């Protein structure tokens, strides 16, 4: 009789504990902090995920219908996205996300990849001065208003890869990494001084665009990807300085120019200051 009572009490308790642990673990994403170390963001996300699970499916009758696609911007950000300590993850949001959502004031890292955001306006990040990283990879962005990132003095990493950009906006001066691979950029859409003031820029990715020439590359850049563009020539001043034969560009350790029409062997004096030759076509 005692064994029976013990089983009746213990088994339900184990099942409930296991369910609580699974529910807690399911809120975490790869690379996030353990639940016990998260602050109010974790609790808010937990409530949000439960609220979403509680919505009545569209094919069943009920008093709380699921949101229509056009209502997505009216929903709280942390209901649509995963909000963790200082980070907001809005990836492949359903219903479709077509604009940058309103972010919590203390957001430092925004991941809004693979949505249908079409435009970045000056209002989107005007009040979020704590941002250090923005990843908008895989959207439909074709326009970014000048000044959209101008107030982000702490921003270090910006990815606009896999969008529909034909020109670049003004970029924050403290960027260390910028990625605009797989866009529709032509040389006329990249201002001559677009990267000139980015004295801390270490990685610059402009591959798979339609550039006809190499833009000005800051001295700080270590990795440069320009592959699969329409670059037809380079000059002595592209990477080196024609008026300074002693100039060395030691920081630039990787340059990719493969997939361009330019025949690099025609310009041997253009790489004398570099410690490595660009990857590309030589014959």
Automatic annotation (TrEMBL):
<keyword id="KW-0654">Proteoglycan</keyword>
<dbReference type="InterPro" id="IPR001611">
    <property type="entry name" value="Leu-rich_rpt"/>
</dbReference>
<dbReference type="InterPro" id="IPR003591">
    <property type="entry name" value="Leu-rich_rpt_typical-subtyp"/>
</dbReference>
<dbReference type="Pfam" id="PF13855">
    <property type="entry name" value="LRR_8"/>
</dbReference>
<dbReference type="GO" id="GO:0031012">
    <property type="term" value="C:extracellular matrix"/>
</dbReference>
<dbReference type="GO" id="GO:0005615">
    <property type="term" value="C:extracellular space"/>
</dbReference>
<keyword id="KW-0964">Secreted</keyword>
<dbReference type="Pfam" id="PF00560">
    <property type="entry name" value="LRR_1"/>
</dbReference>
<keyword id="KW-0433">Leucine-rich repeat</keyword>
<dbReference type="GO" id="GO:0061975">
    <property type="term" value="P:articular cartilage development"/>
</dbReference>
<keyword id="KW-0339">Growth factor</keyword>
<keyword id="KW-0677">Repeat</keyword>
<keyword id="KW-0325">Glycoprotein</keyword>
<keyword id="KW-0732">Signal</keyword>
<feature type="signal peptide">
    <location>
        <begin position="1"/>
        <end position="19"/>
    </location>
</feature>
<dbReference type="GO" id="GO:0060348">
    <property type="term" value="P:bone development"/>
</dbReference>
<comment type="function">
    <text>Induces bone formation in conjunction with TGF-beta-1 or TGF-beta-2.</text>
</comment>
<dbReference type="InterPro" id="IPR043547">
    <property type="entry name" value="Mimecan/Epiphycan/Opticin"/>
</dbReference>
<dbReference type="GO" id="GO:0008083">
    <property type="term" value="F:growth factor activity"/>
</dbReference>
<comment type="similarity">
    <text>Belongs to the small leucine-rich proteoglycan (SLRP) family. SLRP class III subfamily.</text>
</comment>
<keyword id="KW-0272">Extracellular matrix</keyword>
<dbReference type="InterPro" id="IPR032675">
    <property type="entry name" value="LRR_dom_sf"/>
</dbReference>
<protein>
    <recommendedName>
        <fullName>Mimecan</fullName>
    </recommendedName>
</protein>
<keyword id="KW-1015">Disulfide bond</keyword>
């Amino acid at each position: 009789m005692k064994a029976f009572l013990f089983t009746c009490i213990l088994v339900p308790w184990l099942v409930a504990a296991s369910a609580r642990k699974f529910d807690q673990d399911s809120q975490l994403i790869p690379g996030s902090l353990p639940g016990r170390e998260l602050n109010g963001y974790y609790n808010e996300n937990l409530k949000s995920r439960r609220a979403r699970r509680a919505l009545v499916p569209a094919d069943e009758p009920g008093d709380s219908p699921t949101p229509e696609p056009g209502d997505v911007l009216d929903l709280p950000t942390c209901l649509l996205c995963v909000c963790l300590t200082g980070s907001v993850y809005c990836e492949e949001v359903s219903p479709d996300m077509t604009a940058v959502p309103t972010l919590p004031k203390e957001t430092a890292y925004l991941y809004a990849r693979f949505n249908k955001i079409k435009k970045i306006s000056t209002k989107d990040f005007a009040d979020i001065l704590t941002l250090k990283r923005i990843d908008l990879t895989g959207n439909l962005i074709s326009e970014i208003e000048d000044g959209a990132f101008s107030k982000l003095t702490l921003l270090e990493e910006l990815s606009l890869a896999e969008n529909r950009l034909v020109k670049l906006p003004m970029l924050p001066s403290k960027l260390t990494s910028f990625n605009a691979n797989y866009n529709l950029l032509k040389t006329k859409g990249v201002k001559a001084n677009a990267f000139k003031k980015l004295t801390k820029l270490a990685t610059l990715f402009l591959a798979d665009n339609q550039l006809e020439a190499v833009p000005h590359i800051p001295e700080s850049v270590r990795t440069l990807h320009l592959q699969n563009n329409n670059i037809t020539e380079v000059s002595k001043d592209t990477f080196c300085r024609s008026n300074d034969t002693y100039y060395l560009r030691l920081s630039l350790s990787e340059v990719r120019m493969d997939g361009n029409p330019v025949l690099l062997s025609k310009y041997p004096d253009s790489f004398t200051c570099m410690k490595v030759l660009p990857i590309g076509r030589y014959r």
